[in-house]
Amino acid sequence: MELHACGPSQDLATGIGKALREMASGMRGVLEHLQTNERPGYDGLALSLRGLVHRGEQLARHLQAYAGVQPLSPIQLETLPFLCDLAHALRRVVDERISVSVVVGHDCPPCLADRDALEDALMNLIANACEAMPQGGRLLLSARADTSPDGRPAVAMSVSDNGRGMPPEFARRAVEPFVTTKGDRAQAGMGLAATDGFARQSGGCLTLFSQVGSGVTATLSLPQSRPDMP
Q: Could you tell me where the beta strands, DSSP code E, fall in 38-82?
């Protein structure tokens, strides 16, 4: 099953994402040609091209997610094993000064989501959380049974940190595309926008709770998996 949702600004993001993918594909062709026909001095150029292709593809994915047009195949996901697997992988790559823990309510049901897209969305939230704790801190992945704003059964999956937090005026705009405190990098400011788009396309929502100096809790509310689903 594929889910899609589109609006005026999403149409623009869809078009830009498609153009970026086409450009990245063309650059990959040039890169493959350079690798096939090795010449002195081309190593540096090939490395630069590889980096540009990666960043272009990442931005295209973020734009598609924001636009709500990424291909999704929702399945039933058992919340505790999913978050434990993610935490296990994180502990090998995050700053050793950041502790990673998982808390899942005993009555937390499975959610309905595309596994890879959900992992990407959570990684966007986790990357922001880690950047907010440059001296180390606590990263908590949690989940609980919840109810969506329209009254449907949901699973609330949160990423919490005890970092710098966001001022209220920034938090209100944080999910808008390219709103960032990370400078002028091309893909900066798209992580939260992409995560918000994924949540909406999945039939859920993203909410942020922030206290300056105390950290941020970003919560993805996703539909519960129905008992009759495989």
A: 75-77
